[in-house]
Design brief:
This protein is an alpha+beta fold. The protein has helices spanning 87-98, 104-110, 157-170, 205-210, 219-238, 294-299, 304-320, 336-340, 364-377, 388-398, 417-420, 426-463; strands at residues 2-6, 13-14, 47-51, 100-101, 119-122, 126-133, 143-150, 179-187, 190-198, 244-245, 254-256, 262-264, 271-272, 281-282, 287-288, 301-302. The relative contact order is 0.13.
Length: 468
């Protein structure tokens, strides 16, 4: 998936009535760093594209000739609590003492000198490795973590690194990935910047929706993941003293733990919301192609409704099992949002867009409600889109439809006819859901074991002496 970045030297703009004040670039230490609450803005057409994808945690870089210090003004937004404190100020109060500062040698040892065999993801920020570190109060054998290492050749990677430290040092929610600590050191070839996160066993929603090597993700688990992600966005929009706009919501940034609970990751593009009395923040246009709201791309005006649009795109990905853009498909099917319009929600042909891998194991009413919710999120005018609070409530209503009637007898095809007759009880539905979850986890375990065996054989072959 392509990501776009805007490189311009224009001053940052905000909505009506907003003041501006320039500051200096951020120093290495997160605790003492100045932080860009906005980035420079210019003509949205000044775009460049680069490729970035990740299996665990990714980040993207942005460039700007003008770095702004945060205003000590009130934030505004739906149900957001007014506060004179910015994210960096909240970080000084909360995050500076809660995050651990790691040494570079410790993280290099934790990843076997950043071994390729331990690499679990790669993106615009750099590479992500699986490692083991010792934490106070942690298990004697160490704690498994994800370690993201800055690409020293990236564009202003320090700014992205600093944004993640500040935002994740402040936020605290079960549906946001937890930042354990960071590393800021100076190496022979330049600055070394790393982030240490909790390790998410089941990788990303992107992997489970689009990678055919994974077993099919059951319908009920898809909805639970969507609800978790929506709760995370709602917290960012309304649950802090200052409103936060995520700006890069997509399936590859939705991480999954061992029980498939979803957590949002990658806060390198997150921005504080508009000040009191303002309608938007004007920034350089950044994000991922196929997920960014068209009004934001055209104007650079960033609001929480920009996140809502992106959420609508991912809802259709969950429904269809297709990426927002797939160049290898027929021309009329390459852009997901254009393709699904050919099969309206109320039409008899609507079921044709549902992920065929589900084999009918989904709720007819539930899928239609999800499609209607996605359409509302994708409204042309941002004022017509729902808030994330409304999205959460709509998702909960759609999840009430637990019948799997996409295909007759799909719930349990091996059951005798008399057991399938009549409406299943709540207990039957719960048992069936648990059974599907266990089968999915078992299939994942088999896939992981297969990968581990292949890796072992590769290492053993590499270690064998070459015959002379």
């Amino acid at each position: 998936m392509s990501c776009f970045r805007c490189f311009s030297g224009c001053r940052t703009k905000r909505g009506k009535g907003e003041k501006r004040r320039e500051g200096s670039t951020a120093p290495a230490s997160p605790a003492a760093a100045s932080f860009p609450s906005t980035v420079s803005t210019g003509a949205p057409s000044n775009l460049t594209f680069s490729t970035a994808s990740s299996a665990v945690v990714t980040s993207h870089s942005e460039d700007s000739s003008a770095v702004m210090r945060p205003e000590a003004t009130k934030s505004s937004g739906s149900a957001s609590v007014s506060s004179a404190r910015s994210i960096p100020e909240l970080y000084e109060e909360r995050g500076a003492s809660s995050l651990r500062e790691f040494g570079f040698r410790e993280l290099r040892a934790a990843t076997s000198d950043f071994s390729r065999l331990l690499k679990v993801g790669e993106g615009g920020f750099g590479s992500v490795y699986k490692g083991v570190v010792r934490l106070p109060g942690g298990p004697a054998g160490g704690t498994v973590v994800a370690i993201k290492k800055l690409n020293p050749n990236g564009h202003q990677g320090h700014k992205q690194w600093l944004a993640e430290v500040h935002f994740l040092g402040v936020v605290e929610h079960p549906n946001l990935v937890r930042l354990i600590g960071y590393c800021a050191a100076q190496g022979e070839r330049g600055p070394l910047r790393l982030l240490v996160y909790e390790f998410m066993t089941n990788k990303t929603l992107d992997d489970h929706l689009f990678n055919k090597a994974y077993p099919v993700l059951p319908w009920d688990i898809r909805l639970e993941i969507a609800l978790d992600a929506a709760e995370g966005l709602l917290y960012l929009h309304e649950g802090l003293e200052v409103q936060v706009i995520y700006r890069d919501f997509k399936a590859s940034n939705v991480l999954l733990d061992e029980e498939f609970r979803a957590k949002l990751s990658d806060f390198g593009l997150a921005r504080e919301g508009p000040s009191a009395g303002d309608t938007h923040v004007s920034t350089a246009v950044m994000g991922t192609l196929g997920y960014a709201a068209p009004d934001y791309v055209e104007t650079g005006h960033l609001t929480t409704k920009s996140d809502v649009w992106s959420f609508g795109v991912v809802l259709y990905e969950i429904l269809t099992g297709r990426r927002s853009i797939e160049r290898n498909r027929p021309k009329n099917e390459q852009k997901l949002l254009e393709w699904v319009r050919l099969y309206p929600v109320e039409s008899k042909q609507f079921s044709k867009i549902i992920d065929a891998r589900l084999e009918g194991h989904y709720s007819k009413q539930g899928t239609r409600k999800i499609a209607k919710l996605a359409n509302s999120c994708l409204a042309k005018h941002r004022r017509d889109r729902p808030t994330m609070r409304e999205v959460v409530e709509s998702l909960k209503q759609a999840m009430q439809h637990k019948e799997l009637d996409g295909k007759a007898g799909a719930l349990n095809e091996t059951s005798p006819p008399e057991e399938m007759s009549g409406k299943p009880s709540t207990e039957d539905v719960a048992v069936a859901s648990a059974r599907r979850r266990m089968l999915h986890l078992a299939a994942l375990g088999e896939n992981a074991n297969s990968i581990a065996r292949r890796r072992f054989m590769f290492m053993r072959t590499a270690a064998s002496p070459t015959p002379t």
